[in-house]
């Protein structure tokens, strides 16, 4: 049961356990004790994440005329991040507790418990002995060269490579304002307190759009992008009523932003940010023009004016969206059998477009050579189009349940009717079983691919 503040720790625990048990997400370096705030995606997690990224790319880049894609480097020149303000200002206030020796974000002490004195630490009683807050830069630094003489950083956001390449993209593609550049990729932050599973990690992926526009259009486009992004979440299976919009007040926005909406989701650990839609004004191109000493202005052919374009930035967290998809999909349904006995069915109710496995394919009987042959043929036919899973182990009911637990929307069983062994009437058809309703229908093998393609891509 969720608390008044929408938190439900028991549900979250079940989700984390399922993610490990079924191969969605593991802690990095787990066999050595684990690397805090770093996660590996297992066979099903990687499929889910790819589906999300592919769908985002299709909707954001391929189905729009005004957005182009790019894939920038992770290693970032120091000068880029000096100009952007990250070297000087990308930090969180940090405090140390002299009682428990813990280290905490000073602006976010709620929910933390001291290892030694949980009832008093941190910051909750006079006995808790915290240092004065000091600024802690969140960037991860590395060094180049034989003696490590050149500093580089693992990028803290994908955005900076877009700003640095904006002129090259503009000149090589003959685009006009407004236009966007989109990127999906890794970012790194040395978070003081990584927590809530993958929610706050030190290595994560972002899906970012930098949308360049005329100055007078910035505010309007920020509102428009907010709507576009809300519609996207609905399409992938995160209902509008579970999303909250925070109009970030003055003084709480990032240093570059004139307006920011945070799109938040009701996670089982509270309402938390999924994405920021920020109006970054001409800040970024302006500071890079100054920093590199080269003109980065846009020339408007119609008005003959030269100016620095403004930027609207919808910046989504890929890992956070994956986590939201899993949290939203997770369901435990109580079923009562003919004898009145209750049984709990665990289901991930993913939209078919997001589901890691699109269809399970089963021969009813493992020992029936003809059923196995036809099931394998169906598998081969579907595989070039979608991720399928062949399973012939155990009773078919158990196989359905195993697929329910990982969110497979459809299962296909090759049985005696398929082969005409019960009379010819249903020959060439298979049982198609629906995950959510558990209803079964018959569909011809020939129609199966087309039927699935309409639903799972
Ligand atoms: N370019 C703008 C930018 O990076 P941000 O609000 O710092 O803005 C954008 O990050 C999104 O990236 C967040 O809304 C969140 O989804 C994701 N994100 C940021 N830090 C993260 C972290 N430590 N772990 C996982 N996701 C993170």
Q: How would you characterize the overall build of this protein?
A:
By secondary structure, the chain is of the alpha+beta class. The protein has 3 domains: 4-90 and 143-326, BirA Bifunctional Protein, domain 2; 91-137; 357-456, Anticodon-binding domain (Rossmann fold, 3-Layer(aba) Sandwich). 30% of the residues lie in helices and 29% in strands. The protein contains 11 helices and 24 strands. The strands form 7 sheets. Strands 3-10-11-17-14-13-12 form a 7-stranded mixed sheet, sandwiched between helices. α2 crosses α8 (318-329) and α3 crosses α7 (283-292). The two termini are 34 Å apart. The mean pLDDT is 93. It binds glycyl-adenosine-5'-phosphate (GAP). Glycyl-adenosine-5'-phosphate binds next to β11, β14, β17 and α8.
Q: Note the total helix count.
A: 11
Bound molecules: glycyl-adenosine-5'-phosphate
User: Which percent bin holds the helix content?
Assistant: 25-40%
Name of the CATH class of the largest domain: Alpha Beta
Task: Give the integer mean of the pLDDT values.
Answer: 93
Radius of gyration: 26 Å
Intertermini distance:
34 Å
Any idea what the shape is?
A: globular
How are the strands of the biggest sheet laid out side by side? 3-10-11-17-14-13-12
CATH 2nd-level architecture of the largest domain = 2-Layer Sandwich
Count of extended strands? 24
Domains (count): 3
Low-pLDDT regions: none
Going by CATH, the homologous superfamily of the largest domain would be Bira Bifunctional Protein, Domain 2
């Amino acid at each position: 049961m969720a608390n008044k503040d929408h938190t439900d720790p028991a549900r979250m625990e079940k989700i984390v356990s399922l993610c490990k048990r079924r191969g969605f997400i593991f802690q990095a370096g787990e066999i050595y004790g684990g690397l805090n705030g770093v996660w590996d995606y297992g066979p099903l997690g990687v499929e889910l994440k790819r589906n999300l990224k592919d769908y985002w790319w299709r909707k954001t880049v391929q189905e729009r005329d005004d957005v182009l894609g790019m894939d920038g480097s992770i290693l970032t020149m120091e000068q880029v991040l000096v100009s952007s303000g990250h070297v000087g200002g990308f930090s969180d206030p940090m405090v140390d507790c002299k009682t428990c020796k813990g280290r905490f974000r000073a602006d976010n002490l709620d929910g933390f418990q001291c290892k030694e004195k949980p009832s008093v630490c941190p910051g909750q009683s006079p006995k808790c002995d915290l240092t004065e807050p000091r600024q802690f830069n969140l960037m991860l630094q590395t060094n180049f060269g034989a003696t490590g003489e050149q500093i580089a950083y693992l990028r803290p956001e994908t955005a900076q490579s877009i700003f640095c390449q904006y002129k090259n993209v503009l000149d090589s593609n003959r685009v006009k304002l407004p236009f966007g550049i989109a990127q999906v990729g890794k970012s790194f932050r040395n978070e003081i307190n990584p927590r809530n599973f993958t929610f706050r990690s030190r290595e994560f992926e972002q899906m970012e759009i930098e949308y360049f526009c005329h100055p007078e259009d910035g505010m309007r486009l920020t509102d428009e992008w907010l709507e576009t992004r809300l519609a996207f979440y609905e399409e992938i299976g995160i209902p509008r009523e579970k999303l909250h919009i925070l109009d970030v007040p003055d003084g709480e926005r990032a240093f570059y932003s004139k307006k920011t909406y945070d799109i938040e989701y009701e996670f089982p650990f509270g309402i938390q940010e999924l994405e920021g839609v920020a109006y970054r004004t001409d800040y970024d191109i302006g500071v890079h023009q100054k920093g590199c000493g080269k003109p980065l202005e846009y020339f408007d052919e119609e008005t003959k004016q030269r100016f620095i374009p403004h930027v609207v930035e919808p910046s989504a967290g890929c890992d956070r969206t994956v986590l939201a998809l899993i949290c939203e999909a997770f369901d435990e349904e109580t079923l009562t059998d003919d004898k009145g006995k209750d049984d709990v069915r665990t289901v991930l109710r993913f939209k078919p477009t997001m589901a890691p496995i699109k269809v399970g394919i089963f021969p009813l009987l493992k020992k029936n050579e003809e059923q196995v042959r036809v099931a394998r043929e169906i598998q081969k036919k579907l595989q070039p189009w979608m991720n399928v899973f062949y399973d012939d182990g155990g009773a078919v009911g158990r196989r359905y349940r195993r697929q329910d637990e990982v969110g497979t929307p459809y299962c296909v069983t090759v049985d005696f009717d398929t082969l005409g062994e019960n009379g010819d009437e249903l020959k060439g058809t298979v049982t198609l079983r629906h995950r959510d309703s558990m209803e079964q229908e018959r569909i011809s093998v020939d129609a199966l691919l087309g039927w699935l393609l309409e639903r799972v891509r």
